[in-house]
Amino acid sequence: MATVELTTENFDEVVGADGIVLVDFWAEWCGPCRAFGPTYEAASNKNEDIVFGKVDTEAQQELAATFGIRSIPTLMIVREGVVLFSQPGALPGNALDDLIEQARNVDMTEVHAKVKEAQAQQQG
User: Fold this and answer.
1) Which of 34, 14, 38 is nearest to 26 (CA)?
2) Which tens digit of pLDDT belongs to each residue from 18-75?
3) Which domain holds residue 52?
4) Do the Cβ atoms of 25 and 55 come closer than 8 Å?
5) What is the pLDDT of residue 71?
6) The whole model's pTM is what?
7) Distance CA 34, CA 40 (A)
8) Has 103 been annotated as catalytic?
9) Of the residues 6, 33, 69, 100, which is catalytic?
10) Coiled-coil intervals in this record (predicted)?
11) Domains in the chain: how many in total?
């Protein structure tokens, strides 16, 4: 599956959907970003049930600012609208595969309960 270019216009729709979404924050001028690109593409081809998106931080500065992206590449994993992972740095293929497997194995019922509990504490 090809990666999806994410913009301020389609970000919420794509990332807010059910399932797992990986987001690669990158820029054309960034050497580590270009080096990570083929690894990311290979993972997208192996995991067709997952959406792989890319945010060009130069073209989408507002999105990068919203997520506090200070270093690229930064990989973010979102599942069912909840950010499970966000960390800068290019990953080797086996580490990316492991991370994807961990995201698949998260008990989202428990995560949603914890999110709801945290929101209730903030309001109360």
Assistant:
1) 34
2) 899 999 999 999 999 999 999 999 999 999 999 999 999 999 999 999 999 999 999 9
3) 4-122
4) yes
5) 95
6) 0.91
7) 10
8) no
9) 33
10) none
11) 1
What residue type is assigned to position 36 of the chain? F
33 catalytic? Reply is: yes
Query: Tokens 């690109």 identify what position?
Result: 37
What secondary structure does DSSP assign to 30-48, as a single string?
-HHHHHHHHHHHHHHHH-T
Tokens (6 digits) for 117: 């509990």
Say which amino acid occupies 119: Q
Q: How many CB atoms lie within 10 A of CB 21?
A: 24
Q: How far is CA 64 from CA 29, 61, 70, 111, 115, in A?
A: 16, 5, 8, 25, 23
pLDDT tens digits for range 76-112: 999 998 999 999 999 999 999 999 999 999 999 998 8
Classified as helix, coil or strand, 25 is strand
- In whole angstroms, what is the distance from residue 95 CA to residue 101 CA? 10
CATH number at residue 82: 3.40.30.10
